Amino acid sequence: MILTYALIFMLGCIGLALLLNLVRLFNAPTITDRILTLDTITVNAIALVVLYGVWSGTGLYLEAAVLLALTGFVGTVAYCKYILRGSIIE
Amino acid sequence: MEALVASAIGMFTAVGIYLILRLRTFPVILGLTFLSYGVNVFLFTAGRLATNRAPIIGTGEVYADPLPQALVLTAIVISFGMTAVVMMMAIGGHLEAGHDRVNMAAGDTDTAEDKA
Amino acid sequence: MLRRLFPHPYLTLTLIVLWFLLVNQIKVGSLVMAVFLGTILPHLTSAWWPDRPIIRRPLGLLAYTALVMWDVIVANFQVARIVLFMPKAKIRSAWVTIPLDLRSPEAISLLAGTITMTPGTVSSDMSACGKALLVHSLHAPDPDEVRDTIKARYEARLKRIFE
Amino acid sequence: MSLALIAALPFLGALLPGLMIRAGRDACAAVTGSVTLLALVLLALNAPTVLAGDVVQTRIEWLPALGLNATFFLDGLGLLFAGMILGIGLLIIIYARFYLAKSDPMGQFYTYLMLFQGAMVGIVLSDNILLLLIFWELTSLSSFLLIGYWKHLPEGRQGARMALAVTGGGGLALIAGMLILGGIVGSYDLTVILDNKELIQASDWYLPALILILLGAFTKSAQFPFHFWLPHAMAAPTPVSAYLHSATMVKAGLFLMARLWPVLAGTPEWFWIVSTAGLITMVMAAKIAFFKDDLKALLAFSTVSHLGLITMLLGFGTKAAATVAVFHIINHATFKAALFMTAGIVDHEAHTRDLRRLGGLRHLMPITFGVALLASLSMAGIPPLNGFLSKELMLEEAAHTVWITPWAMGVLATIGALFSVAYSFRFLAHGFLGPVRDDYPHTPHDPGPGLWGAPAFLVVLVLLIGLFPMVTAAWLVDAAASAVTGEAVQSKITHWHGLEAAALWMSLAAVGGGLMALGAYPRLRALWDAAPRPEAKRIFDGVIEPLAALARGLTGLVHNGSFSRAVGVAVVAIAAASLWAFRGGDHLAGTRDLLPVEPVVLAVWFVMMVAALAAPFFHRDRVVALVLIGVVGLLIAPMFALLSAPDLALTQISVEVVTILLMLLALNFLPKVTPVESAPAHRLGHAAIAGVAGVGVGWLAWSMMIRAPAFDPISAFHLAQSKPGAGGTNAVNTIIVDFRGYDTFGEIIVLGIAALVIYALSETVLRSPSVTRRLATFVPEKEAGDRHPMMLVVSTRLLLPMAMMVGVYIYLRGHNMPGGGFVSGLVFAIAYLMQYMASGYVWSHARQRYDHHALIGWGVLIASLAGVGSWAFGAPFLTSAFEYVHLWPLEEFELATAVIFDLGVFLCVLGAILLALASLSRLALRTGESANTRAFDIDPSEGGR
Amino acid sequence: MNHWIIAPVVLPSLVGALMIITMRGDLLLQRVANVAAILALNAIALALLWSATTHGPEAYFLGDWPAPFGIALVLDRLSAMMVALLAVLALAVVLYAIGSGWDRKGAHFHPLLQFLLMGIAGAFLTGDAFNLFVFFEVLLIASYGLMIHGGGATRTRAGIQYVAFNLFGSSLFLIALALIYGVTGTLNMADLAAKLPDLPEGDTALLRVAAVMLIMVFAIKGALVPLQFWLPGTYANAPGVVAAMFAVMTKVGAYAALRFGTLVFPPDLPATGDLLSSLILPAGLVTLVVGAVGVLGATTLPRLVAFGGIASMGTAFVAIGAFTPQTTAAALYYMVHSTLATAILFLVADLVTRRRTHARLDDTAPPIAQAGLISALFLAGAVAMAGMPPLSGFIGKLLILDAFRAQTALVWSVVLGSSFLMILGYARAGSRLFWKASALEAQPEDPRADGLAFTATFGLLAALVALTVLAGPITDWMAETARTLHAPESYIAAARLGQEG
Amino acid sequence: MTQTFELAVELFLAAILVGGGIFALVGSYGLLRLPEPMQRLHAPTKATTIGVGAALLVSALDMLPQGGGISWQELLITIFLLLTAPITALFLAKTLLLRHEDPATLPETGTGHPWATLGEERPDP
Ligand code: NA
Ligand code: NA
Questions:
Q1: Number of domains within chain D
Q2: Residue A35 lies in a domain
Q3: Which residue of B has its CA nearest to D744?
């Protein structure tokens, strides 16, 4: 029971965090901030998926989290590489 | 939930169409991507919405409709391939013509800029 | 022969362990698969990892990991405090140059990663010769202290492990 | 059978000139002539039967379902026309042999001529009106080729096009008319139609059919107001003019009116339309002919006039008039063909046809003059020549026909005859009489008999028919007129009808008036030149050219190359049609319980919506747009997870990142910002269109979701059979690799082709010199100093095998748990991409052991073979099998053929993505960047260790 | 089970894959393989045609799953006919491509052609709505590659429009399929045909929208106004030989409209009624006019031919849109005819443009090599396209006019009026290309032999002649085909819905 | 397993969740609040990671109270995140160095060479 409340709390936190991310996404002073926000959203999404797995009591969504971790990284690096060098594969 | 999903479909579609109506290749491709988001989710909803009923036999009693999911998989893959192609064509067009306009001159002859 | 079979033995071991984490079960079949993948994948990828790094003290690496984990958790609270409560004007961010004694790419990468994961600091760049790291500290009234801590607490340990 | 052969012979003959031309011009002409002669002989063999009052028929089934059959019949009318076509055709062939210059491609000429001849013969022999239509249009086509034969002459090209436009257009009306006619009768067989006069004339469709058919006939026969094309067709070589515009093509319209006379004529509509058109044409064209200086133009308008005369006679609707019409057809063919040939000789010899530059030829070319004299006197209606006979009969009929008033027709006919006399004499007087001049472009002489032989022969006929009409022509006239009128005709043709005959006085008036007109020519000419009058060509050009310009303008306006227009129109059309369809049906209230919404889901939804909505506002900064699309794509994945679709979540995540990478790669070669180019109003309009589409699609989704499916979904079967039937617990995967594996088969091929296309395009682009130039001047923005940071490379060394392991895991469990070959392939691809990003394309690719093309090929091949393999067991393509295997010391595991198929999927996906990215990376190499030889830029161990 | 049914799909996929793996560097080998494969496809198509004619509809159950749960292919007279048409056209196209050297101008021409064949054949044969989408995509993506084959700025940019518009169309297709599945719970076309008469009242609106959207998708493929904008730019800028191959792609749209309009949404279905015909028929008429005006107003030769193609699609859709056995029979004949005729003209346009420095019609260029043969081919093609005798276009037109006794005035006047515009247009173009040119000085140019290319073009012309001469038996066959289309019981029975094995 | 143990585990997990939630929030809040670009880099790359770590830990252990075992896949995800987060941060920092930092504010490398991001490209030997 208490775990449920804690779960709801954390889900609420993540939801709130996502809304904060949204704000940053739009008033980002630099392109880096936008990429950073996207990365943060990815991490929050991982948390969300993991927590949903806990909530629903299945492990069916963990691979999604694995992939999110992997691809979030690749994506962020690619955006940065683009800013840094223009060509992401050179 | 249904309303949320439906409105998201509508939003993706609207944004997609608006961007497709732009005059440069890149926004058009972005628009197509948005449109495919909308359409893929639309196709997904053909199986109706359900939570925690993943169609993995043995994990529950009732399952979400697996067929639209399989169809969406196919659709995602196909739209990915198509996006890749049109992207490459956009590059090719830009490099060959020197600009990335989508519109052609009437009669398909190159515009003045193309010649330049 | 063995070297050709296992171009990166530590990688092989890591992969075997990771496979068990992944399949989340201990069965003979899993072991067979783990060993198979642990052998084949380093082979498949060895072309992109041409040189074999030297790890002199593998066990030291484990201890180092534990240390870093602890630092991560503790230091996170400091960052949380800064983010939440410290007035913006009082935050003293600073750039810190960390001259490197380490030479192994793997070790330097590990150091840089450690710096980033321990809150309050981010490894931001490397000198064009590879002999200094640029670290940004979120709140460092005394930048030299940051440098000294890093060199003493992490780099020294890594030096022992790798070189 | 022989009739079909007669019709077919010219077409077969059309093939010969092209082959024979190498054997020389004589051989070519001889062969062409022999074919025509053969057809003529065959026709003659049938003549006795026809003249005896019988009809010869041939029937070959072609398209019986439509009622279009190759049926031919030969009656008097057909005999007359076929004889004329073949006979004069033969003369023309001979004449043309000597007329055409060495530089003219003679083979081509004869080919066209024979095509035309065949088409004409076909028209007159057809016993099926659809078949007749085919030959009819063929005459338009082949005459187009003949008129334009001298391609280098602009008048020839324009004349040909004008002729085609008018006669072809008329042909289209004729099609409609004939179809209506056939529809009324229920048969397209002429012999049947001709038996149904009452049915046809009582039908509501009679008038439309009549008008449409007459449109066809009038255009072909150059009747007012469609007369204007004929003079312009005179740009053709003279043999063509002689053939087409005296004896044959223009007579096709007359033939048609005569052919259908029994069922169409006799009504007031027929009378008013046909006789009026004929009368106007006759008078007007005769008047114009009088003022024409070009010999051929004069003859052309004269032809128009005579056609009008015959049309008028047919229009009267009486048996007698029809008989006269038939007679005049014969007479006109003889003298007019002769005259055209004469004009051609003059042109050939004097190098001009302008009456103002001629005169006095009587002395220089007496034979030609003799021919011209007889023919033009006949044209003028001077006794005892054949033209006189039919003109007298015509005037007599006109005098007795009431048209508006009792006398109007007679007066107008006389005026027509008057001009006829006038231009005929002018032809003679200004061309041949008078003194010999010294300023001919070329001094003319009588040509050899090759040229004058044919007209001379015709003039002999003119004379003979004139002198002995009852012997030479009456039998043919009777036979033909019987066919036209459907009753037995026994004509009596005489030179003298008595003093009480109106025609006598009308004739005298015409001759007298004509001579007076010729005398007053200079003054009349001045009047004529002063009067404003419509120039046909200018009117035609004034219609057609603006029409073409309008078409060009419209087409350019509608198809202006605007993509946004195309999409905008499409969206509006789809939305409108869908709305219309929706409102035409019923949609009842929802039947399902809706899912509740958790706050966190609301938050995710909100972020997703706002990020999407932001895209139109921020899209000009393209990287920002990519970040936004990244956010949206990323958040769709947890949504799929939440909605019980783990496989979709996996796929969405991995496809998304590959898409983003691709777009970043692409953006490097594209402008970084999108300029503002459309006006605010435009953007607002686009936003409205987009909004409509969004609301519509969203509404559809909502409407669908709130109701349960009308029938049990077929997926119940998939869920039930997933484990027992397909051997996997992941129903989505069993659908993908088994139940609907064929979809997946297509899908991986799509992906594979996509990569091939990208590769091919990159090859092409790289080969293009302009691209090479552009790439060489490629100046990137401010750049970082290091390309391959060490830390990324080092971590990739660990992550690469780890990611691959995850890929293997996802592949292996896919059948039972979320995952499968597709996602696995993507994970592998992402892993490789990571490597490529870390150490660069050249360095990484050099260490890549597998050829991307081959990966795709093998993927497709394995998937195909996995499908084909089931044939060996007599099962259909892609039939799967699975078995649980127990192999000590391993736990029991499953072996499924679907896994082999999935391997094909895996390879194809991997190969496709790698090939696509490799293609893009090769472009980057052309920007002048150097290739690295080491994994990372800065190696601290260098010299340190 | 008749495994040959799937051969037109599997054969090209195998050949295409083998080309990629083993023949990538060897053009000669690719050429040989391609020709051999297409010859085999012709043989298979012939056998299938025979089978469909003698045995009636037959289904092929992929993966041995019963319909409607798995995917079933259905071979019937119509699908067999379309596959045969495809095979014939492909043979001419591949020969022309080899003869003209088009296949050398970029990578992967031969495998892409094979995959295109696979996609088109798959679309013709499938009995499953979603699978139709998949094979549409297969044929489309192969067509993208072929369209931009050889590259160049204008072609590539035209290609972008082509691809983007079709992606838009694919999205629409998916929405329609989603609605169909969402409402009925099935995707098998025979199953839909069996179930839809029992559709509850409350779902008809959604089904109607789905039907309309599907038709719009097919209209995009078939270039029906107002969804035709993509065609002129695409076809006019595609390599000539590819444009010729594309002649059959528009027919995929026509085919699908015909299939769905007779099987799934027949006129007697209460939910949709005359919905389809009230859209298709007027749109077809407008398309015809737009195409005819385009023919008259075209500024370049390829565009002229492209607009001719639009006009022919308009005509075909007019015939399709009436959905009566008689009009359908006419439509079938016209589709076959116009595929061949359009292809001929595209090949001729290519023969011309390859010999000239530009393709503009308003600007005379010097006479071209082999003008005689080429102008004869142009004449034949133009005659066929304009619907003039003696070629099959005229017969097709007669069949259509004859079948439209009910709406005589409108249909007839549009069909005949358009013919008039087209006659004018083709005559202008032809006289400018071949006659006006002769007024200019001939340039000393190497006469190009192009034997194989000419053979291919004349081959198509021969097919057209055969279509004309054998019109009787062919139209009889088509009338029977149309009858079975409008009485789809045998098709539905062949799908053996819900029966195992 | 005793009731107490279960409760203890539950309480522990609940605490982890609450803490993780707060960290996740802090990360995103810091991203919004901190004034300088480089400062903002600190918050999410670490705090949010801790938040995810918490979620993963709970996910790994949440079957314990019901008598289930530990789920190990979460550890793998954690390893992934630990391996990748520093690289992400490094690249983000490099973009800031290149585009937004005034080179004058940076310390010397002390090696005679510039910082790699700002230096000249070194041609490969
Ligand atoms: Na699939
Ligand atoms: Na997509």
A1: 4
A2: yes
A3: B74
